Amino acid sequence: MIAKHAPHHDAWRRPALAWAAGLLVAFFAGGLRLLHFTQIPRFTDETDVVVRALAISRGEILPLTDTDGYIGAGFSYVLATILALFGPDPFLPRAVVIMAGVLTVGAAFLLGRELAGLTPDAEAKPNRGGAFAVGLLAALLLAVSPVHILVNSRIAWSHATTPLFTTLGIWLLARAVRRSDGASLAWSGLLFGIALQSHPTAIALAPGAAAWLVWRGRWLLRTRWAAAALGLGAVGCSTLLAYNLLTGFDSVREALAKSDAYALERAGRAPYTLALRLELEGLVRVLAGAIGEGRGDLAPLARPGAIAWAMLTPLALAWSIRAGVWLPLVVVAPFLLILPMLNSKYEPLLNGRYLMPIVPLVQSAVALLAVAVWRRAAGASRWAMVAVGLIVVLVLFDQRRSLTAYENAALADGGNLPYVDAAMRIRQLHQPGDLILLDADLGGARVASNREGVSVLEYLLVVHPEPLPVASGGANELAEQIEQGSGRQLLALLPDTRQELAARYRLTPVGEPPAGREQRLRNLGLYRVDGRR
User: Fold this and answer.
1) Is the Cβ–Cβ distance between 104 and 198 less than 8 Å?
2) What does pTM read for this prediction?
3) What distance, in Å, lies between the first and last C-alpha atoms of the chain?
4) Best label site of 30, 81, 457, 524, fewest CB within 10 Å?
5) Where in the chain are the domains?
6) Across the chain, what does the average pLDDT equal?
């Protein structure tokens, strides 16, 4: 009787253990993303995105695009819905992106497991344990990725969510071909459409994905599911598509203008070969977690972790081919060749996000190789198996070490905390009827788009359950507000602007200056106007 029921018992235990392991990875990924998420990275132009979403939630605007005309408004409407349901909170949009980041880790598991099923051996003799191990390792590699944690799981950009949709789209594409499942192809089209709406660089995945579908799943193109995939893809990027039809493809013009602005920021457009080299170096840094200790840092490629990933990536792609899994190379290679035509900025923080759509695919290929090596080592000797396991642990630990170094440096600078403290001081001094006048030098200028955005301090005052009336500008603009205002004003000024306004008005300091390590905020003063000079 015991022998008779043992197989049934094993069949129950394996799924239970698999689910337990998957939940542990999800909690681990969520914990890494929640840690210090309100403080680091410091708020960037995500402030513009959230304020726009807040206006949508109040019914003030109904746009077809994001703050940039080449990005669809889908993410803005998601944020608007969340803000309408839970109320305005400056950190709530980051919590939404954290959820998307954890879901992307789950998507990496699905992709890795599906790739393992594409091998001829798996098709002839399914090995669920091996496929699960590939998916789990792919998920772990993404879970500890510093760039994915800090950028794609915290900053409330539409682009931060792109890897979620591209990873799920590639997974469903592989599933459609492997299982002859037309419905999966149709849903893949929808997800690729959403990805394109979230950021136009997702288009760089299209040639490789289409080529692989024609090669391995040509029969699907002759079915109604192919038309369904195209139709759902159009639905996925419908707001962006509608905007371009109404404006004569203004997204293209704006994207080119942004590219030119980035080029000017770099003092000249990088030639293709240089952009390609920067991209490949950026990919190595992103995969290795070589993020440095500050925004824009370029950690040396000579460090052991970067060297290991520079060797491991082509080796894993080559092994995938040998194992009969061509999808990673067929998608990754065209992407890497196309992207430098569109962009030449690949610093891990914050521009590693441009490479993130292919990172889960590369990590899945690495996981496929690692599991194959581990299984062969297990057949050779126990010590060889232990050695492979230790190498995997060291790779994961190295990523965590890089993240910790950045966190320590960023927290030492204060992150968002000094701005939160400054906003709290302003709220304490605010009186009914006060208009808050903010010095434009506190931030908000967007170099790439040549426009004024929402500064961090303004963001914290406006995106709040009790928003304050705020106006921002230089000395002349603030003087106009003072002259036109019928009520009282509370001014937050840096020394240069204060000096200009003090020549026209009597300014009385109020309260204590904000404390903190951030240099600009240490120089910030709060004043009231007590008449003209």
Assistant:
1) no
2) 0.92
3) 100
4) 81
5) 17-412, 417-532
6) 89
